[in-house]
Amino acid sequence: DVKVTQSSRYLVKRTGEKVFLECVQDMDHENMFWYRQDPGLGLRLIYFSYDVKMKEKGDIPEGYSVSREKKERFSLILESASTNQTSMYLCASRLDPGQSYEQYFGPGTRLTVT
Amino acid sequence: DQQVKQNSPSLSVQEGRISILNCDYTNSMFDYFLWYKKYPAEGPTFLISISSIKDKNEDGRFTVFLNKSAKHLSLHIVPSQPGDSAVYFCAASASRSGYALNFGKGTSLLVTP
Predict the structure, then answer these.
(1) Which of A2, A51, A98, B10 could share a disulfide with B108, CB 3.0–4.6 Å?
(2) Calpha distance A24→A6 (Å, rounded)
């Protein structure tokens, strides 16, 4: 069974803080993704990584950065948290797209920025 | 611009009846489609998928139909059960793009006893 874990289920941070969200997958997947989910907006792609040290911007990268130093770990960084970044953050991983389109999701981190 | 659209934000169905969730897409390059199910406070879980070379795929109570000419797909759940109550997301991918899944906004299904 594929397992994607996220470091926190719930997080409360103050405006201006630097926030790290960690994601780890245990299936040796090449690709990893960060999404945010907001009511009425569905899942929106923030960043993705198709290999170690590689990253690509998604649809809404502003205010975020990412790091992938090891294959199993993909971090999302909010350099200076703002209230409009209050959201559910979802990490996903996948084999190379030549093998599978299916993405496996972690349980999510509910981030509140006050 | 939303390339995958789920125009019904919510749907209520009685237990035992059929649930039909609809999805439309605009990008003719999409050639692979997936449905995900999401419970509150959990990540989405993969449900069923279909390639554009097929028009139907079935897995137990779940069937996905694809109408390429209409750029429309639907998920049928028969019979519906209270445990099916969740948000369902439609997603699409173009093989040439390689990496991205484009998600719809989701449809919240409520199955009542």
Answers:
(1) B10
(2) 6
According to the model, what pLDDT value does residue A21 have?
97
Chain A residues in contact with B32 by the CB 8 A cut-off are 101
Instruction: Identify the three-state secondary structure at position B112.
Output: strand
Contact predicate B48/B34, CB 8 Å:
yes
pLDDT in tens, A89-111: 999 998 876 667 789 999 999 99
Exposed / middle / buried, residue A71 (Cβ in 10 Å: 0-12, 13-18, 19+): middle
Q: Which of A75, A67, A70 is CA-nearest to residue A21?
A: A75
d(CA B87, CA B36): 8
pLDDT digits (tens, 9 = 90+) for A57-84: 998 999 999 999 999 999 999 999 999 9
